[in-house]
Amino acid sequence: MASVSAVKDWIKPDETAKEMLTRLFTERPFLPLPPPLHKLPLRAGNVVEIVGPPSSAKTHILMQAAISCILPKEWKGIQFGGMDRLAVFVDLDCRFDVLRLSQLLKHKLIQASNKKSQTEYDEELFAACMRRFLYIRCYDSSEFLATLKTMNYQLQKKKEIQGVGVHLLMLDSIGAFYWMDRSLPSLLVGGDRKSLSLQSVTENVVQDIQKLLLVHPMLVLASKTTNSGDKYSADEVRRNIGSGPRPKHREYMPSVWQSFVTHRIHVAASDENSDHQRQLIYLTEWVSPSINSSDKFIVNDDGVFLIS
């Protein structure tokens, strides 16, 4: 018969509730993201889908999030307010403009330093930030799956070199290979017919990302393109606000991906222009969870800029 002390040791908790919460908030902290992703407390482990028609600034939103991740909190006495962490950008559309990213990053450095010249920036800091940006391009789902399966090794190696871990994993865009995957044939593997389909590919993508998140706690931001016919006006947004979650597009991703997503924000170009320079205005609205408000923003040299 077990002694009383042995029983007490067996039922003794490993940690208190306070210790558990402290550990969780340390391992999976809330991430200070720039607009329009600033309204909800997002943390490592969340999967955010940025949904919108073509040319609705989804990639710009990802770029701005990446810049906030790779910027330091402080550098040579100047506050930049960044996360000082690695960011991984997986380009599935194969249209990423690295020159645009570098332009946006330089603008951030110039703004924070408050230098009189609008062209001077700290080149050492710029290089340090770009080294924390990991860019990967995939041309089909097989390359995407291979990338996910080898990403753990790449992130471990990058962490050893940079001395910091990863906070953001960005996928642009998750539905890029939809039509290719729908037409996948069955393959004969080792004498057995193994079915390759959109469903099986998506299941593998979700499983591989879940495994990655266990080792590298990070926030997943995935853009998803809808039909151009899903564009809606500012008046329609105002009328819909407060009516609860609703689809603004025809869902085409398999249910395994839909259930994997924890947050969803809809982005679209409006039918109005801003007063200055007649720039196109974009609208955002959180669909899941539903928030009873929407934001307007424009895209300029500084990136995504909220307007009233």
UniProtKB/TrEMBL annotation:
InterPro entries: P-loop_NTPase, RecA_ATP-bd, XRCC2. Signal peptide: none annotated. The lineage of its organism: Eukaryota, Viridiplantae, Streptophyta, Embryophyta, Tracheophyta. PANTHER family: DNA REPAIR PROTEIN XRCC2. This is RecA family profile 1 domain-containing protein. Residues 22-226 form the RecA family profile domain.
